[in-house]
Amino acid sequence: MRLFIGIPLAAEVKDGLEKLVRKLQSDGDGLRWGSPESWHITLQFLGETSEATYGCVVDRLRDVTSPAVPVRLDGTGFFERAGVFFAGVNVSAEMRELEKRVIAATMECGFVAEDRPFHPHVTLARAKGENRLKALRRLKERLNEDAKFPAFTATEFVLYQVFLGAGGSQYEVRERFRLGND
User: Fold this and answer.
1) CB of 16 closer than 8 Å to CB of 75
2) 174 contacts 159 by C-beta, under 8 angstroms
3) What DSSP string runs through 119-164?
4) Whose CA is closest to 32, among 21, 16, 19, 20?
5) Do 126 and 84 touch, CB atoms closer than 8 A?
6) Residue 146: pLDDT band with limits 50, 70, 90
7) What does DSSP assign to residue 30?
8) Nearest-angstrom CA–CA distance, 182 and 174
9) Less crowded by CB within 10 Å, the N or C end of the chain?
10) What is the pLDDT of residues 38-81, one digit of tens each?
11) Model pLDDT for residues 92-144, shown as the tens digit of each residue
12) Kind and range of the H or E element at 106?
């Protein structure tokens, strides 16, 4: 099973993102747009995981203690090489600490932290293929204001399972872990 750990978004944040996406989407724009059900903030991508390792991950994540995490989305941006349009996330001290605790917990099950710096974001759209840069350029031209979203406090983090498909990935919540238990 393919897994990752993330923070689900509050309903009012999803509503704001949905309004932005509806305003920017157009037929034939060359982008695969995410849906509100898929929006989250990734803390750690685990990838393919065996049943035995899954049990270890769940046990270790149950031991993670952390205060609730203040979350504030911070404008939009692009990972051009990856063909991604995203909403940025302000990294609070609590979020950074939670990410470190999650990684420390999963290391006990054999996972390794990524070499890249932690850059939390919410993926809104992906451009694929040889025209991806052109699709992103057209999208940039339609962005006329910096989006604002309400802040919220995350009271849980989640272990998701990924199901790959032709229309994009689908995510299913496997386990929920409470925050505010430190």
Assistant:
1) no
2) yes
3) --EEEEEEE-STTHHHHHHHHHHH--S------EEE-EEEEEEEE-
4) 21
5) yes
6) confident
7) S
8) 23
9) C
10) 999 999 999 999 999 999 999 999 999 999 999 999 889 999 88
11) 999 999 999 999 999 999 999 888 889 999 999 999 778 888 899 999 988 87
12) helix 93-107
- CA dist 15 and 21 (Å) reads 10
pLDDT digits (tens, 9 = 90+) for 78-96: 998 889 999 999 999 999 9
Angle between helices 51-62 and 93-107 (to 10 degrees): 140
DSSP 33-61: E--GGG-EEEEEEEEE--HHHHHHHHHHH
Instruction: Say which residue the tokens 């090489």 belong to.
Output: 81
* CA distances (Å), origin 141, targets 117, 119, 138: 29, 24, 5
**What is the value of pTM for the model shown?**
0.92
For residues 124, 65, 102 and 172, what is the CA-based torsion angle, rounded to 10 degrees?
-50
CA distance readout (Å), 87 to 107, 152, 164, 167: 28, 15, 22, 21
Q: Which CATH architecture has domain 2-178?
A: Alpha-Beta Complex (3.90)
Domain boundaries, the chain: 2-178
- At 70 the three-state DSSP class reads strand
Tokens of residue 72, six digits: 């504030």
